């Protein structure tokens, strides 16, 4: 099991911003697609955004124009960010980082497509 370490969650008011980070160690992950998902209790895990090694990006319609995914392929590790602006109460969820997903154009939004997962970081937005 490869650890993905997420950070950056917290509580903000509506209209605020947060930046999530996910660090995964291992040079091979520089070539893997990465994604952020979110999940509310009792709900399916929902794809938020994905990015592959060529920085090709896709977003869920619900976050387009507000969230930005990016990655930094460093020596021996990969860091993926999710900049979240204009947060709304409906964005309240546990957010998860995922690695080793499908190629660009594949079903990036399906959680089953990813092999490695982080423990999650809570985002709470109050009105």
Description:
The chain is mostly beta strands. It has no helices and eleven strands. It has strands at 4-7, 10-13, 18-25, 34-39, 46-51, 57-59, 67-74, 77-84, 93-99, 116-117, 121-126. The strands form two sheets. Strands 2, 4, 5, 6, 9, 10 and 11 form a seven-stranded mixed β-sheet that branches. Strand 4 and strand 5 form a beta hairpin. It is globular. The model has no long low-confidence stretch (mean pLDDT 93).
Helix content: under 10%
Report the mean per-residue pLDDT as an integer: 93
Question: What is the CA-CA span between the terminal residues?
Answer: 38 Å
Count every helix, treating DSSP H or I runs of 4 or more residues as helices: 0
Provide the β-strand percentage band: over 45%
Task: Give the structural class.
Answer: mainly beta
Morphology call: globular
Unreliable stretches: none
Gyration radius, to the nearest Å? 13 Å
Write down the secondary-structure element order: EEEEEEEEEEE
**How many strands, which pairing sense, and closed or not: the largest β-sheet?**
7 strands, mixed
* Tally of DSSP β-strands: 11
Summarize the model shown:
With 127 residues, the protein is mainly beta. It is built from no helices and 11 strands.
């Amino acid at each position: 099991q490869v650890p993905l370490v997420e950070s950056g969650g917290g509580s903000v008011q509506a209209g605020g911003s947060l930046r999530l980070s996910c660090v995964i160690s291992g040079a091979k992950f520089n070539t893997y697609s990465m994604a952020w998902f979110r999940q509310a209790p009792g709900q399916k895990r929902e794809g938020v955004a994905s990015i592959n090694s060529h920085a090709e990006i896709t977003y869920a319609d619900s976050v387009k124009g507000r969230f930005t995914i990016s990655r930094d392929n460093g020596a021996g590790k990969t860091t993926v960010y999710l900049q979240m602006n204009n947060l709304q109460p409906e964005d309240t969820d546990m957010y998860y980082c995922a690695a080793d997903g499908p190629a660009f154009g594949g079903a990036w939004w399906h959680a089953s497509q990813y092999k490695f997962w982080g423990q999650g970081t809570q985002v709470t937005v109050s009105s």
